[in-house]
């Protein structure tokens, strides 16, 4: 089996759902269930025995160590993080705690476990660290896209904390030989994306008749990747990635934020026209910029394409239409998130389970 951290979040839950569509290998899903963790994302699994959920904090080395000893996974896929740049600006402490100290604790537990494995299992073990393109900093309009060799230059507390975690992961390979893999991916979008991030926020606000806030002049650029393409890339790296290597993952889909928001408005105009027939674009509002806002990210994904044969299956046009369709079809999910109902449900249903797992 494999251990996934942060499997109740946006990408982690998509990864687990994708995993079971391809494989029967069980997954232990270890997640603290912060505001961003939502077990409703995995409700399609029902009581599927391949999925073992354990609530816990990656900072708790002893808890992770007992899980590793009990379940003996062949790999750890590490998604758990504080992930929202705006939150890191308002309150960086949680980002240092989870992204830096938490990754350190996890590495320590993984190293102890891996050191005690038999030779063949030690050789086969993998620690896959899921990271971001934001560690490379901000590009100018004519700069070449980020390569794996681009020097780190993080600009927000979030990206600095992820950069620190990447360095720790690298050091555990260099110093102890832990078989690590690091992936640095661009902006994901798709189902179960928490509506504090640009794309789901714009869809939700548009349908609620609220303003569509665009930071600054709307000309900041991001490279967008449909989440299932990211999941497929992680699976490829897990199988054939070379320990100690990093792999950039991106969709070759650079868009300005204004383009993205206008595209969303146009799709909504077609699929869910307003009752008054007004154009959703009329709701666009330019607001004060994010402090330190990185201007442009772009990923050169040739290494993973050439070495591992991965390529995105979705274009931005196909992925964004699927995404809007998903949000239109799953407005209950959005309402539960907005009302906080999913948090109460978790408390009610998983309080005992947490206690039992802890004793095991
Ligand atoms: P998310 O915020 O949606 O989910 C994070 C998950 O981690 C949540 O389920 C949360 O409960 C859990 N978590 C947080 N702190 C924890 C802790 N201390 N112990 C255990 N679990 C904890 O994040 P996401 O967007 O799914 O991102 C997942 C990973 O991918 C992150 O490492 C992020 O840096 C990276 N990443 C995200 C994107 C993106 O566009 N969202 C792009 C590239 C890389
Ligand atoms: O690049 C990968 C990163 O992408 C991940 O590492 C992060 O975890 C993920 O959150 C995402 O970071 P961004 O800051 O790029 O995503 P966000 O959706 O917050 O913002 C996307 C762009 O849209 C960014 O330029 C800021 C802008 N924006 C965002 C919000 C929430 C707005 O203009 N208005 C908004 O209301």
From TrEMBL:
Cofactor needs: NAD(+)
Keywords: Lyase, NAD
EC number(s) per entry: 4.2.1.46
Top enzyme class: lyase
Domain NAD(P)-binding: 3-323
InterPro entries: dTDP_Gluc_deHydtase (IPR005888), NAD(P)-bd_dom (IPR016040), NAD(P)-bd_dom_sf (IPR036291), Sc_DH/Rdtase_CS (IPR020904)
GO molecular function per UniProt: dTDP-glucose 4,6-dehydratase activity
A GO biological-process term: nucleotide-sugar metabolic process
Superkingdom field: Bacteria
Annotated Pfam families: GDP_Man_Dehyd
Coiled coil: none
Reactions performed catalytically: dTDP-alpha-D-glucose = dTDP-4-dehydro-6-deoxy-alpha-D-glucose + H2O
Recorded family membership: Belongs to the NAD(P)-dependent epimerase/dehydratase family. dTDP-glucose dehydratase subfamily.
NCBIfam families per UniProt: dTDP_gluc_dehyt
The protein's name in its UniProt record: dTDP-glucose 4,6-dehydratase
Gene that produces this protein: rfbB
